[in-house]
Amino acid sequence: MSISSNFTDADPWLERDPERFLDPSDVLEPGEEPPRIDVDELQRSGAVHEVAMDALEYVTYRQRLLIAEEYAGIAQVLTDAASCPDPWVGPDPTHDPEWRDPQGRSVSAVRAERRNIAERAAAMELATRLGMSEATVRTRAAHADALRERCPRVWEAFRAGQVSQQNAATTAQQAATLPLDATEAWARFDEAVAHAARTLQPGKFRLRARVARERLHPEPLDVRHKRAAADRNAWFEAEHDGMASLTVFASADRVLAAYQHSDARARHLRAQPGEERTLAQLRADSLLDLLTTTDLADPSGPRWRPSVAITVPVMTLLGHDDEPATLDGYGPIDAETARRLAGEASSWVRILTHPVTGTVLDVDRTTYRVPKALRRWLGVRDRVCIAPGCVRSARDCDIDHRLDWQYGGATADTNLAPLCKAHHTVKSKSLWQLYRDEVTGATWWISPTARTVDADPPPF
């Protein structure tokens, strides 16, 4: 049964076919008793399952309507914040004829920054209210804007419940990579994928949309590839049970060559007598061996040794307990791995905690510059950026004075915490405020709309 088979944009779901769920035999004459229902027969005939699938079909349709409305609403909030920044960053000082920027910037530059900060502040608040990451908020706004501007056919079908969230996101992602001035290519892409977005499941639609984009892109592929290659990157993501993923985004020929090389090594090892690892395990082991057993700058050199920050309960380190240790940038790791790292690392920060008393660092409270020992302690206490929902590692963050140093804020652990650069800017230049109860040590944020947001607890 197809959702789009008899759907029209003008008619709501139940008005498509008023008698869709009506069986003429169900209409009773006056005084007529309803027939006895044979539940077993309904099960055998599949009628019960048909009703359940109809109900799920309707639920999915309603869900699509709500998700599309959410996309549109998020985009509108961020657009409004950029067009009217004052509620998010305060009054515009450039309207004062006597105003001069301390950094010597032009009025247009300052106003552009205000729009940017206001949008960030609004995204941060939406994230806390909707229970999403800021990245998700900004992505949904960008997808809504791309669909509305570049693919109005798919956008209208999405708003009407005909296109799934996955297919709408795929359309937006592909359309957003077309040139800014290629309006003809936008229209042709929209036309090429509009029907498929309604009818294909996400996997096949991703392939269809990517092929359509490649065919309709006005720039030569070699020009696009050169530009895309500048964005090559690798990133790490923590997974369950002491595992993690390493993703590489680079030129297809090199990535494929690396995969084929690891596959060939894996197949060679798999054929060796006594080898019990699977091909999948051997591919992973081969890649990691290549990356970690030699110095890449000098392949003939000694094996690369890790430099890690790790918090280890002292009894675990001594082998008398199996309480998990914590690897900086990841989280809890098993005791065996912790002891191995302790033996292999050429340099590592050991912050030993007694299983009963723990440890406390004494800190310098008189200078603005954060002492190394204090920074190290803050990285243990607050593993990640303290902005709501942010998971950027503390080692990649600025150390922020909650109360600015210039206003009497001390360089002390009670007044310091890690904030990534983006959230440090929002705290400094928007109306978001961070507070701390000096008696209990509790911290919380107040948003520009006066919403109280408790500080996130430590992730581990």
Explain the overall architecture:
The chain is an alpha+beta fold and 460 residues long. The protein has 4 domains: 58-227, no CATH class; 233-292, no CATH class; 307-353, no CATH class; 385-454, no CATH class. Helices cover 47% and strands 11% of the residues. It has 16 helices and 11 strands. The strands form 4 sheets. It has a 4-stranded mixed beta sheet with strand order 5-4-3-6. Strands 9-10-11 form a 3-stranded antiparallel beta sheet, with no helix packed on it. A two-stranded antiparallel ribbon has the order 1-2. Helix 8 (183-199) packs antiparallel against helix 9 (202-216) and helix 11 (252-270) crosses helix 12. The radius of gyration is 29 Å and the shape is globular. The two termini are 48 Å apart. The relative contact order is 0.07. Residues 1-11 and 351-366 have low confidence and may be disordered.
